[in-house]
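The records we work with from here on pair a chain with its fold. The integers have meaning only within a learned vocabulary of local backbone shapes. A complete example follows; check for yourself that the lines match position by position.

:::
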Amino acid sequence: MGKIYGYVRVSTKEQNEDRQMLALSELLIPAENIFMDKQSGKDFDRPMYNLLKKKLKQDDLLYVKSIDRLGRNYEEILAQWRWLTREKKVDIVVIDMPLLDTRRGKDLMGTFLSDIVLQVLSFVAENERKNIRQRQREGIEAAKIRGVQFGRPENPLPENFTQIYNQWMLGKINGIEAAGLCGMSITSFYRKANKRKEQQKTLM
């Protein structure tokens, strides 16, 4: 019997890792054998994961809370799983899915069934992430239609904007002069001025 390890990944530094850490602590994994990365899973250039891979030896046991901790998509999850189990010859247990426990069924049939379950779950996990992103996009579009504003609120226009804008439109002053009189940057003035022109067109 080799050593027992745990791996935790949260996708951003703001995300809370407590749920994963609690699940691993209940398995009595030594604290020094739990490796955690707090960064995006967009690639596998993750320092703690890479350190863990170097430490793993044949017959060691690795716990992860869910299958998507191993990768960001179907292909990466399968690649990491196969590298860990076939190249490093370690066992993996996915806490959220008891069927994914390589200690069970070491014969050819057991390995075959584990591979099938892994492929199905990895495919489902990737599709769920795609569905979440799609729902987020649809929610944002629906909110925009309702008039919800995203991003930082715009600064209010200076009191003299309309007067200066009209002078600029009549060609009495140029854009740099107009921006200076309004106390705005040139890009801000042009953005506000173009927005005002579009609003006036819709009223005509």
